Amino acid sequence: MNILVVQESDWIKRNPHQQHHLMERLSLKGHKVKVIDYPIDWCKGRYKRRNVVENYHKIHAEASVDVISPSILKVPILVYPSLILSHRREIKRQIKEFKPDVIVGFGIINTYFASRTAKKEGIPFIYYWIDVLHRLIPEKGFHALGEHLERATIQNSTEVLTINHKLEEFVKGLGAINTRVIGAGIDLEKFNPDLEGTSIRQQYSITEDDKVLFFMGFLYQFAGLKEVALEFKKDKYKNLKLLIVGDGDAYSDLQNIVEEHDLSGNVILVGHKPYNEIPEFLAASDICILPAYPDEEIMQDIVPIKIYEYMAMGKPVITTRLPGVVKEFGEDNGISYVEKPSDVLVKASDIDVIIEGGKARRFAEDNDWNKITDEFESTLNGVVRIE
Fold this sequence. Notes:
Layout lengths: L1 E5 L11 H11 L3 E5 L10 E2 L2 E6 L8 E5 L2 E2 L5 H19 L4 E4 L3 H13 L3 E5 L13 H14 L2 E4 L2 H9 L5 E3 L16 H6 L7 E6 L8 H7 L8 E6 L5 H10 L6 E5 L6 H6 L3 E4 L14 H8 L4 E4 L2 H7 L5 E4 L5 H7 L2 H12 L4 H18 L1
Parallel strand pairs: 1-2, 1-7, 2-5, 7-8, 8-9, 9-10, 11-12, 11-14, 12-13, 14-15, 15-16
Antiparallel strand pairs: 3-6, 4-5
């Protein structure tokens, strides 16, 4: 089938998310996939022309996804109007030329217009929630408008999918009726607990006696990493190390903490690394952490895919008590909870890595990407037949 995807994130520059895994795997099964995205580097000029990247892949070398970035105008008061006009035009163009059998939306603005156009044209529309997107809008004054568009898109949708059960509760609160949870998947071969991480430990001067805590992803200010790093000022954590892979808003603050408090022997800032190198970094680690602020609004209903990847590698996870995470994993599944980021090191000192890591791996084994992709493909086939 022909599948058109719309989103407001950069398909090429961002790390792999749920949609990357699903769409590349669907392309491997013979489906044609086109994505309308929103580039993150458009600020390098006042105007960015429409750009098309054909046969793109991020995860699987044999996958083929066409990525279309509509033109965008960089003038503060015209950014959103420009996005609306260019994306509406592109959606209509793709419906005319590509003739999609189904449209899948992951955003707010372009997803709303895609859902409205799909309904008018009689094309099945799937609204897939992997986050509460209106909470991510930088300008808080637009949150209410974002939520309004989400509600309208839900009404236009053939079916609403969510990546976890907490998000399903949320979308039902917005009026969704026909819902289904299709959770995060894991490549169990790539994220294999038998992988060797010795070379990484040697590269970063990590000894056999060191217990390594690992974090990967975008370094938000609310990620809790600064609080964890500052705990290393206490001498009792000499054999603990924090290995951070990623960049973002808090990176420079973390650098300053390390330099100011002479923590280079405990806190290792690696920066961004390609996704295919992540399993080796995980193999070099003992415990993975998600110490985000528990009261941060945008963290309330989500379950980051990386938690499943941590667990697939047989790594116990320490996380703050985020509602979505607690609901998804419960107790005694290799997840340990703390009340605040600064509690992470104390908890890490007490964890039995072998026992808790085994629990984590057993839980993750039910989330193989092949199974998740088949379920998603079946859902698409179902709505296409319905229409």
